[in-house]
Amino acid sequence: MCYQNFILMGLAISALSGCGALGPSEYKEPLEGETATLVFSKGGHMLVIPSIYSGAAECTDRTRLPSIPDDGELARKIKAGQPISFSLARTENYLSSGCISTVTFTPEANHRYIAQIRGHELTCHIELSDEGSAAGEYSPPRSTPKTDRNWHRPVSEHGPFCAE
């Protein structure tokens, strides 16, 4: 009887977590089409973990990335010309208190964007800047239009993680 309960418990966890995955899937860079580069950056001694959502409108289907290393940057290719949503989760001094900030923006092809989380303790926001195209003339980074989203914890990893 105990063995049957163990199997039922495993099936229930699998069903509740969606497709048998207990956590977010690993982010996969686009293999075709126009792309941009999104660089996650941090300053100071803190743990910062980025997430990119496959469904930008409601922040659905969260994909995981490694934490930003202590040297400060983590870069990934993203699809250009369509909205993308991502979150940065931060804990200061690697302690338990922290915050999560989520934004949506539409990247331009061949541009390099820098996303950095700013704030203190439980309050934070993402600063997003465009460093332009590698093929173009140098211009100073400029602020990128973005929509700040309200992050909330969904029932499963499929989301939605955003609320308007």
Give structural notes:
This protein is mostly beta strands and 164 residues long. 10% of the residues lie in helices and 48% in strands. It contains one helix and twelve strands, in the order αββββββββββββ. The strands form two sheets. The protein has a seven-stranded mixed β-sheet, with no helix packed on it. The relative contact order is 0.20.
Short précis:
The chain has 164 residues and is mainly beta. It is built from one helix and twelve strands, in the order H-E-E-E-E-E-E-E-E-E-E-E-E.
Mean pLDDT: 81
* Order of neighbouring strands in the sheet with most strands: 1-4-3-6-7-11-12
Coarse shape: globular
Strand content: over 45%
Radius of gyration using CA atoms only: 18 Å
How much helix is in the residues?
under 10%
Q: Uncertain regions: pLDDT < 50 for 5+ in a row?
A: 1-21
Counted by DSSP, the helix tally is: 1
How many individual β-strands?
12
Distance between the termini: 47 Å
Biggest beta sheet summary: 7 strands, mixed
Order of helices and strands: HEEEEEEEEEEEE
- Given the helix and strand composition, which structural class is it? mainly beta
